[in-house]
Specification:
The chain is α+β, with helices and mostly antiparallel strands and 1007 residues long. Helices cover 23% and strands 25% of the residues. It contains 20 helices and 45 strands.
């Protein structure tokens, strides 16, 4: 298919790998050990593939009539050892196309598949045009030659898989050995792509023409077959599972990963471009063209370039338009950007680059271009995409950054300079709020394994980001990713790394290393409460963001970190990120997370919850969030959690989870891997079945629709009916990921104080095909039931090593107007410590009522803490309140618990500096508002809660002040994503009312 007009000129020179880049690479190799190592690896890999001749390389490239599949029998496992193979990961099969072509080896039992000599069969089916034609192939070669104890058809694969006669499920009975080999061992991350990348790098580093010759021969053969590639003819329901987001579309492979494959081809063409003139290349390819009667005789460098450009590079835009090349945000856009630049054709570049930024309707996935729509509508104010998962959101940065880097210096309009756009620059900040104990990213949604350490992002991304923006936070994060050391810290091979690292060192000298204090990112929906440093660092997380896409149904999920460990790990990435029942009904389901299940159902969709309070004070750190949309049958679904300091090395955590509405509430909580001891509970083991019922079996990998609640994934069930008073569970936490040099006696303890009807213990598995994931976690489920039910689940959590610092925990009565309050709107807890200190904690939803706790503590507000030593008050804390009094001692009495006001104006353009002009009631010292949050009552589509960086008086407004909110935009979306001239929709409006909760402390930390 000819897409380029006859008058269109061919590429004349390298355009992406410029002379400056190549000079930098060779300079880096000469100066730096890390560059020498990267060069060595590239050359070693290139030489590995050059052990074979040009003929072998040419034949690596298979043709359309041979299926590709990224999933082999994902349910059944290996034909010999069955599910034992699962422990080796999602894509576990091994193989070596050079030494053992057309064979896969099971890493568990070492069995080899398929059982037939597929190589001879494939060769017999090559037609006069060099393509594989299964109708012409010799089917007598399709017989089992490896396993004489089996029949001659056992595990025989003709390219379209072996159908297990013992299975009858259309989706799961086909073992796609050759399709998997073709996908993983040849094309994607296989010999074709690996060899091509290695030849490209080795040639750029050494200028050795043998690498260019080999690479051009591969590229030319890819160009022969690429236009006809169409993976959609190999159906998911027939077992040919590809990464296409269930669209069914793709070319060599599924449309999502196709974007990555085609970028390898395009950039390799730029790197290897001079190789089209090599005589050995012309001789070899012209012989092949004659042998297989090709229209292009390939007798000149221009003819070879024409073949590659027509067969690969010019296929990218129509592939994007058809959806065959379409991935997550930035994937296909960066493929098109690379093609536009590499083609070295001004006319096409001027057409394709604006195409990427324009909004296009009616396209599967993320749109054909849509960059400006994505940055305004889809990237939230905190720099996160719509994926929920930190891992997937980071793809947006890495891929859009590639667009920015490819276009940089290419003479395109300033309108297409992404580095100048505030929303793009904000993407770099995406991982910062997640950093826990300086070594963990929480496993939100489809991210990481279950509780393993690791941070999101690549060092090179942040080194390059710093080089392009000068943002010191990027230098700090790159330094953190490198272990807070300078050894081998670098960007890519093609940058002036000495200059960049010198600038980074200046930034670190001025601002210090990266340190993550408490954070609340309200646009994304994540809070990290943090305290302590080094070995005493601890953190509590609350997630209230998006629960769709690559997110889980985990709104108001709570996490705890201390002593270097994730103490209550989320499950992370599912077994497979498709629509399988295990993913839907268990891994992603609400019950597998630390939150509350209503009416045995999963949560409904939400974008982000509504935060009402956040405080990051010295002794008390607090988050309070409501999620009104996740269970439509509820009138309240709200969690208030506080982290309260015991001393410089330890904190305890108190959790108030209120649910109003529905008939059943299940509070679900689990610790990390380890045994659980209990107090105050008398369990009876359930004889069989699951938490769904004694007669409901354990779901086998989720392929059972018995219970959409997910309760049939909880097994080894023990039940305790109507527990009296408080009860506790204590996990002895195992260091699953071997973070500590030696195993330590680390515990997570939860004490529940509110009335429940039943408490159960059960085992639940994280995904078992993720190497290192534990076999199971122990879950506690506290259950309440009733008509139009109101529940107030109150818990105190402790993380401790060896011995507890808490002596006792109890609920204490609360009175109003002299009468005991029975409402779920208020609760008080007493925590007594072994050092003699006693804390009284109270949480009330009505800050206008004066409450009395234990007949001697008076409190008015939302949240309060009163610390006593020898029965005398030593510390007091009130958030959004006015009164705290112990006996005769008035610790806190204030005129107001919050500042009220309204919005007068705000920054309406996309800017890195944003302000809200407000009218505030009764404020005399605005400086005290810096660091607090303003909560604006908007239309409720998204919350409007912002941290106040600093405050200035606005002389032009009565009682006017200007609140600086930094680089957090107030823009929600375009008015019309197809007509940007119509302007923006905002999260706030003039006249909106606002509140700024105030927090007060009395006493000292060391009291």
């Amino acid at each position: 298919m000819i897409l380029m007009t006859s008058g269109t000129s061919l590429k004349q020179t390298r355009t992406y790998y410029t002379d400056d880049k190549i000079t930098n690479a060779r300079s880096n190799i000469a100066r730096h050990s890390w560059a020498k190592e990267r060069s060595r690896q590239a050359i070693e890999t290139a030489d590995h593939y050059l052990k074979k001749d040009f003929e072998f390389l040419w034949n690596l490239v298979t043709t359309q009539k041979l299926p590709r599949s990224c999933g082999v029998n994902q349910i059944m496992g290996c034909p010999v050892c069955k599910k034992e193979i699962d422990r080796f990961g999602n894509y576990p099969w091994k193989g070596d196309p050079l030494e053992q072509p057309w064979k896969l080896t099971c890493p568990s039992c070492q069995s080899i598949f398929p059982s037939n000599d597929f190589g001879s069969y494939y060769k017999s089916g090559i037609d006069e045009n060099g393509f594989f034609n299964p109708e012409a192939a010799d089917r007598s070669l399709l017989k089992n030659t490896l396993y004489p104890d089996k029949d001659e058809n056992w595990c025989v694969d003709d390219g379209y898989g072996w159908l297990d006669p013992e299975q009858n499920n259309r989706e799961t009975r086909r073992y796609t050995f050759i399709a998997y080999y073709n996908h993983w061992l040849l094309w994607y991350s296989g010999a074709v792509e690996k060899a091509l990348n290695a030849f490209s790098e080795a040639y750029l580093y050494t200028n050795n023409p043998r690498y260019a010759a080999a690479g051009i021969i591969l590229l030319d053969r890819i160009a022969d077959v690429y236009p006809d590639m169409d993976s959609s003819v190999y159906l998911w329901e027939d077992g040919f599972r590809n990464s296409h987001g269930l669209t069914g579309l793709g070319k060599v492979i599924g449309c999502i990963w196709e974007t990555m494959l085609v970028k390898s081809f395009t950039l390799a063409y730029d790197a290897l471009f001079p190789g089209t003139d090599i005589p050995d290349v012309l001789s070899f390819l012209s012989r092949k063209a004659q042998m297989y009667q090709m229209a292009n005789k390939k007798e000149s460098a221009a003819a070879i370039r024409h073949n590659i450009e027509q067969g690969i590079v010019m296929q990218i835009k129509p592939g994007i338009e058809s959806g065959q090349i379409s991935g997550n945000v930035g994937m296909h856009q960066s493929a098109l950007a690379a093609a536009a630049v590499v083609l070295d054709n001004a006319k096409l570049t001027n057409d394709w680059v604006p195409y990427m930024f324009k909004t296009h309707p009616g396209h599967p996935g993320r749109g054909k271009g849509n960059i400006m729509k994505i940055l305004v509508n889809d990237v939230d104010r905190d720099g996160h995409g719509t994926e929920a998962s930190p891992g997937y959101n980071h793809i947006w940065l890495s891929q859009l950054k590639l667009v920015a880097d490819v276009l940089s210096g290419q003479g395109t309009s300033a309108a297409f300079d992404l580095y100048a756009y505030p929303k793009f620059r904000k993407l770099f900040h995406m991982p910062f709020p997640y950093v826990l104990l300086e070594s963990y990213t929480p496993s939100i949604g489809d991210t990481k394994r279950a509780g393993d350490p690791g941070l999101v992002g690549a060092i090179q991304t942040y080194v390059s980001g710093f080089a392009n923006t000068g943002d010191p936070l990027l230098a700090q994060y790159a330094y953190l990713l490198n272990g807070n050391k300078w050894d081998n810290l670098s960007g890519d091979m093609f940058s002036d790394n000495e200059k960049i690292v010198e600038g980074m060192k200046k930034a670190i000298d001025e601002f210090g290393p990266f340190h993550s204090g408490s954070t609340n990112v309200t646009g994304y929906g994540f809070t990290g409460l943090r305290d302590g440093k080094g070995d005493s660092a601890r953190a509590l997380t609350l997630y209230y963001g998006r629960n769709t896409g690559h997110g889980h149904r985990d709104t108001l999920n709570l996490g705890l970190y201390a002593f270097g460990l994730d103490l209550s790990p989320d499950h992370g990435y599912p077994s497979f990120a498709d629509g399988n029942y295990e993913r839907v009904h268990w891994t992603n389901n609400t019950v597998s997370h630390n939150t509350v299940v209503v009416n045995r159902s999963t949560q409904a969709d939400q974008v982000v919850g509504i935060p009402h309070h956040y405080a990051n004070d010295v002794r008390v750190k607090l988050i309070d969030v409501e999620a009104p949309k996740v269970y439509p049958e509820t009138q309240m679904y709200r969690r208030t959690v506080a982290m309260i300091k015991i001393d410089e090395t330890d904190s305890y955590y108190i959790d108030f989870f209120r649910v109003k509405g529905g008939e059943e509430h299940h509070y679900s909580f689990h610790g990390g891997e380890g045994e659980v001891a209990t107090e105050g509970l008398n369990f009876i083991k359930q004889a069989s079945g699951t938490y769904a019922g004694e007669n409901v079996p354990v779901a086998d990998k989720g392929y059972d629709e018995v219970s959409e609640s997910g309760f049939n994934y909880l097994y080894h069930v023990e039940r305790a009916n109507l527990p009296q008073g408080s009860f506790s569970l204590d996990w002895s936490i195992k260091d699953t990921w071997k973070v500590k040099p030696v195993e330590e006696d680390i515990h997570l303890r939860i004490t529940m104080l509110s009335d429940v009807h039943e408490v159960s213990l059960a085992d639940g598995q994280p995904p078992q095909n993720k190497p290192g994931n534990p076999k199971s976690y122990k879950y506690v489920l506290a259950h309440r039931k009733g008509n139009n039910l109101e529940s107030q689940f109150v818990s105190v959590m402790e993380a401790y090593k060896e011995t507890r610092k808490v002596q006792s925990i109890s609920a204490v009565p609360v009175k109003a107007d002299g009468k005991i309050v029975q409402s779920t709107d208020v609760f008080a807890v007493k925590v007594m410590f072994v050092n003699g200190r006693t804390d009284i904690i109270v949480n009330a939803l009505n800050p206008d009522v004066v409450y009395t706790i234990e007949d001697h503590i008076r409190f008015q507000g939302f949240f309060g803490v009163c610390s006593l030593a020898a029965e005398r008050p030593v510390y007091g804390y009130v958030c959004n309140g006015t009164l705290l009094q112990a006996g005769e001692k008035v610790m806190i009495r204030e005129a107001s618990g919050n500042v009220s006001g309204s919005v007068v104006g705000f920054t309406k353009d996309m800017s890195a500096e944003n302000q809200i002009t407000v009218r505030l009631n009764g404020v005399t010292n605005a400086d005290t508002l810096a660091g607090k949050y303003v909560y604006i009552q908007n239309d409720g589509i998204r919350n409007a809660a912002y941290e106040i960086k600093d405050v200035k008086v606005d002389a032009g407004t009565d009682n006017g002040f200007v609140l600086n909110i930094g680089d957090i935009t107030l823009i929600r979306s375009w008015v019309d994503e197809f007509d940007f001239s119509r302007g923006y929709v905002y999260d706030v409006h003039e006249g909106d009312s606002l509140s700024i909760p105030l927090c007060y402390e009395w006493g000292t930390l060391n009291s």
